[in-house]
Amino acid sequence: MLKSLYDWTMGLARHHHALWGLAAVSFVESSFFPIPPDVIMIPMIVARPDRAFLIAFVALVSSVLGGLFGYAIGAFAYETIGQPILAALGKADAMEAFSDRFNDVGFWAVLTAGVTPFPYKVITIMSGWTAMPLGTFIATSILARGLRFFIVAGLLWRFGAPIREFIEKRLGLMFTLFVVLLLGGFMAIKFL
């Protein structure tokens, strides 16, 4: 089933209404859909580098709006909708244990999930369930998703198709290392 969803998503990238498809996938990926918007965004930018930053902007706005939907699921329908989504992703048990500490590290959780391969939808639902301050959630989502989508767009705009393999295979790791180094730097400042 995941393969057919992936193929369907890739097909959207070639469609003449691809921006609308990207907006839809970016929205639903932030709350429940398993395929990331990069799958549509990358081939769209390779095909039309002159629209790279428009494409990133559409992904950003739609993803943050979808994140708000995920937040609403967590806040108003965690038991009926949110928990089954987290269970399907294999994250339900870990999230139950993490929920007590979530808002203490909420900014970092949203930032990390927004830029790394960790499922952003898990954090959007958790943010609503734990009643993270909405302003913090929105600001951090804009920062994290903006970094992710605009860095991808900038790399593809500047280097074109040759950088595509790096983005698809290693950019998630690079973002993860960036967050780890950033957190390590803050910890070092705090304790030194």
TrEMBL record:
Q: Which segments of the protein form a coiled coil according to its record?
A: none
Which parts of the sequence belong to the VTT domain?
A: 52-155
Q: Which PANTHER family does the entry mention?
A: ALKALINE PHOSPHATASE LIKE PROTEIN, DEDA FAMILY PROTEIN
What residue range is the signal peptide?
none
Sorted keywords for this record are: Membrane, Transmembrane, Transmembrane helix
Q: Name one Pfam family in it.
A: VTT_dom
Protein name (database record): YqaA family protein
Which top-rank group of organisms is this from? Bacteria
* TM ranges: 20-40, 52-78, 136-159, 171-189
